[in-house]
Every structure is written in structure tokens, then in C-alpha cells.
Amino acid sequence: MLQIEDDDEAYHYDIQKKKLYGLATIFKGIMILSYFLVIIFYCQLMSMDRPGTGNLAFIFGDFTMLYLFLALIVLFFLVDSFYRKTFHQLYGKPIPRNANAKEVREFMMSMMDEAEKQISYEENYEIIIKLNNYILPFALIGIFLIGTFFHTDILLALVVVSLIYIYILVSQYKITKRYYKE
């Protein structure tokens, strides 16, 4: 009876570790994205033609942009290193260092149990459906309206969102073609 309780506690502890690791992975992505957005907005602030912008934009002198990009690169490598070390501590296997996307996907899928895979498949399907039916069409409409009302150049934004939309549609075609083989 004591063995079962210990196994239950070990299983509960293992589930908690994996949950915290998943939340940390999400936090890592949010932190890198927010820092990247700060750099983008800083670049836009530097390029604006306002009086006094130059004094605020060059906090570290002429090499401010270089320092920010170096900090972003260092942050990326540090986060990647911590991510790999934590993964190795939790799962006991290191993530392959020079693997392509397909090999990493297969490795990560081998680490999941069937329930985890099923939940992942269902959630990913929901994300694709929401992107395809709601988010991307409304983003295209919103970009068009912003361009119309504020008379701004929206070509790059339209191209990027349209390419993502086309990629999802082509992927759905591949899924349909694969499922309904003739």
C-alpha cells in the first residue's frame, strides 16, 4: 500500500514538473517577443522626424542599436541554453543540438504519452480553425481599414498576413488530399 502512495506522489510530482516546464516555455516566448517588440518600436522612434527624438534615441551614443541587437542575441542564446538544460533535467534526455525541424518534432513526440498527444492535436486543430476562420480574415480587414483611414502604407502587413493565410489553406489541402487518397 505504501508503494502505491509513493508511486502516486511520484506521478503527481512528475506531472507538476512537466506543467511548470510548459508554462516556463510559454513565458520564455512572451519575454523574447516583448523584448523584440521593444527593439522594433525603438527603431521606429529613431527613424521618426521629431525634434528631440535624437537625444532620447541615442541613450548609449552612436552604437545604441548595435548594443540592443547584441543584447537580443545574447538573450536568445541564454534562454536557449536554460531551456535545453531544464529539458535535460526534467526528461533525462538532451534535445538534439543540430537537428532539423522534423527530427525535433519526432523527438518531442516520442517524449509525450498518448493523452498528451491527443490534447496537443485537438488544441492545434482548434488554433488552426480559429486562425483560418476568425483571426486572419479580421486581421486583413483591420489592416485594410487602418490603411484606408490613416493613409498609411500597408502592403508589407497585407503580404505577411496573406502568406500566413495561404500557408494554412495549402496545409489544409494537403491534409484533405492525404486523408481522401484515391
Summarize the structure.
The protein has 182 residues and is mostly helical.
Write structural notes for this entry.
The chain has helices at 2-47, 53-57, 64-91, 101-111, 114-150, 155-179. It is mainly α. 0% of the residues are buried. The model has no long low-confidence stretch (mean pLDDT 77).
Throw out a few tags for this protein.
mainly alpha; 0% strand; 182 residues
Structural class: mainly alpha
Termini Cα gap = 56 Å
Please tally the β strands and state the result.
0
Question: Helix count?
Answer: 6
The biggest beta sheet is recorded as: none
Radius of gyration over C-alpha positions, nearest whole angstrom: 23 Å
Helix content: over 70%
Low-confidence stretches: none
Mean pLDDT: 77
Q: Please state the overall shape, judged from the principal axes of the Cα atoms.
A: extended
Strand content: under 5%
Order of helices and strands: HHHHHH
Topology (elements, then pairings):
Blueprint: H1 2-47, H2 53-57, H3 64-91, H4 101-111, H5 114-150, H6 155-179
Helix pairs in contact: 1-3, 5-6
